[in-house]
Structure formats: C-alpha cells, structure tokens
What does this fold into?
Amino acid sequence: MLVVGALASLTGMPLMIAPFGATAVLIFGQPRSALAQPANVIGGYALAASIAAVLASTLPDQVWVAALGVGFSIMAMSALRVTHPPAGAVPLVIFGSHLDPLETLFVVLAGSVLLVMIAVIHHFIPPKIEYPAAIP
It folds into this structure.
C-alpha cells in the first residue's frame, strides 16, 4: 500500500488509493480468487480506464456520464471475462480527477501492473502461495 500511496501522491490522484486498496485486499488476501488473477486485475483496470477516458474526452463532466462509465465497464469486463470489481470505481476516479483522461489511463495501467508485480514477488516468499493461481 505504500507503493500505491506513493503513486497516488505523486500523480495528485488521492482517490486512486481506494480502488487500488480494494485490489490489494484481493491479490494479497485472496490470491486464489479468479477476481485477483493478473488478467482480471490488469484487464479490468485497462478496460475501465479506457472506457472512462473515452467518455471523459467526449462527453460533458457530469455525474450521469461517470455512472455510464461504471455501467459500460461492468459490461465490458463481464463480456471479456476479466471482471475485477475494484476497477469499477475507476470511471468515478477519472471524473473526480483534475488530470487529463489519458494521463489518468497511464497511471491506472501502471498501478495495476505494479500491484500484480508486487503480488507475484510477495507470494513467492515463504510461505509460498501460488500466484497467479491455476484456475480451471
């Protein structure tokens, strides 16, 4: 969480710590969950941030547009089978942020990859836990 907090602080996006904190609960507390697997974490964040960036760049800064982003993100994650619930908050963060949507997209992608990398290293240290898990 220190790394995530530093990322949120460096980018001026303090709200980003909320979805990344929820991701940490999944990848460190429930690493065998399908929702905690790297494809879901990175894919879910990538989809939600991309959708939100497009909406933020093309539609007015309104609450209903942020809500639309959440709905579209859920639909896309479900359709592509990369559901990661914390990523559903990303459109709200992007619409609540003062940063450029494309800059925010980069921060979200970098943060999700960084979290997964830290989880892989963490779960390699004894007591070893298989992460990513082999999900049937």
User: Anything to note?
Assistant: The CA atoms of residues 28 and 122 lie 8 Å apart. The two ends are 30 Å apart (CA to CA). The helical segments are 2-11, 17-29, 38-58, 63-80, 90-96, 101-124.
